[in-house]
Design brief:
With about 180 residues, this protein is α+β, with helices and mostly antiparallel strands. It contains 6 helices and 8 strands. It has helices at about 15-30, 50-60, 65-75, 105-120, 120-125, 155-170, and strands at about 1-5, 35-40, 80, 95, 130, 140, 140-145, 150-155. α2 (about 50-60) packs antiparallel against α3 (about 65-75) and α2 (about 50-60) packs across α4.
Length: about 180
């Protein structure tokens, strides 16, 4: 398995293990076939997700407009006041994004990421990207865990093209990658 962008010491053992299982599975059915993986990490994922993008995605998924309006309103009026031990506090800071640790944050973030991939999967399928497993009609093209994304294919150039496609969609959503 050729992993591009893997950072030593990152707690991604489950992803690494999954890649090893995938490599063994592919080696059993297609000896000599290489798997190329590119790890991407979204920079300040929750902090950069704009209320407008959240609202658009929720409406695209059929969430009732009144609920979308309330969620977007909450995101626009999100204020934090950091407090530290010994009674020290900082001035209130206005946030224009989803909250780290908010009950809705992970759900909303995952809906945005799922939406991003929905714009790409048909194109990737037609281009032949990914790793086709014997019993599947669609190729395995990616794994997502929190703000980490791994794109997967059998050709190095395919992985680069997939990363570029994903970067373009992320740019439209106001998200960007951490520098690796």
């Amino acid at each position: 398995v050729n992993v591009i962008g893997f950072e030593k010491g990152c707690p991604t053992e489950f992803i690494t293990l999954s890649l090893i299982v995938l490599a063994r599975y592919v080696a059993e059915y297609e000896p000599g076939l290489q798997i190329h993986v590119l790890e991407l990490d979204i920079k300040q994922a929750y902090n950069r997700l704009s209320p407008a993008v959240v609202g658009y995605v929720l409406l695209e998924y059929g969430v009732h407009p009144l609920l979308v309006r309330n969620i977007v309103s909450e995101l626009k009026n999100n204020v934090i006041a950091p407090r530290f031990p010994q009674g020290i506090s900082c001035p209130e800071v206005e946030m224009n994004s989803i909250r780290q640790g908010g009950y809705e944050s992970t759900i909303v973030f995952n809906m945005v990421i799922r939406f991003a991939f929905s714009l790409l999967l048909d194109r990737w399928h037609l281009a032949g990207y990914g790793v086709v497993l014997p019993e599947n009609c669609r190729a395995l093209t990616h794994w997502v865990w929190a703000d980490g994304i791994w794109v997967i294919s059998t050709k190095h150039n395919d992985v680069k093209m997939m990363a570029q496609d994903l970067t373009n969609v992320m740019d439209e959503l106001g998200l960007e990658w951490k520098n690796s």
